[in-house]
Amino acid sequence: MVDTDELIETKAGATIASIFEAVGEEGFRDQESAVIAEVSKRPEPHVIALGGGAILRETNRELIRRSGWVAWLKASPTTLAMRIATDTTTKARRPALSKLGVVEEIETVLERRSPLYQTVAHASFSSDTVELEQLADDVFRSYVQWQSTGD
User: Fold this and answer.
1) What is the pTM of this model?
2) Domain limits at 71?
3) How many domains does the chain have?
4) In tens digits, what is the pLDDT along the chain, a chain of 151 residues?
5) What CATH number is attached to the domain comprising 66?
6) Could you read off the pLDDT of 81-91 as tens digits, one per residue?
7) Distance between CA atoms of 121 and 110, rounded to whole angstroms?
């Protein structure tokens, strides 16, 4: 598995928050696009975990579409806010995208990004109340179905 955010941080030797601070969101998105282009060309089968904003650029959406099967893991703003609050690395690694409160920011971001996610996803899965193992099983079964039917 390749996590594009982790790869960006490794290449830059800095956190995403530091990259945002140094080169702004546009500079970060340039680095993100370069990493997506790089990993989508790998010939061996692999999972690519994208940062949430990767979907914002059309060039990224095209690469994502052509890369293979795409699963969209969804969660409610409340669930996402709870996950952010309990992840001790979030504050150090991730920049705030607005001056809104956490839930309000998530709602605003999802409102903008959800239609874009829908354009590339072969399947979507709610992760609000599902155990991780069940979610993984559901995603795998959907992938296998897609692979066997091409749908």
Assistant:
1) 0.85
2) 2-149
3) 1
4) 999 999 999 999 999 999 999 999 999 999 999 999 999 999 888 999 998 899 999 999 999 999 999 999 999 999 999 998 888 887 777 776 677 788 898 999 999 999 999 999 999 999 999 999 999 999 999 999 999 986 5
5) 3.40.50.300
6) 999 888 888 77
7) 15
Residue 27 · residue 19 · CB < 8 Å: yes
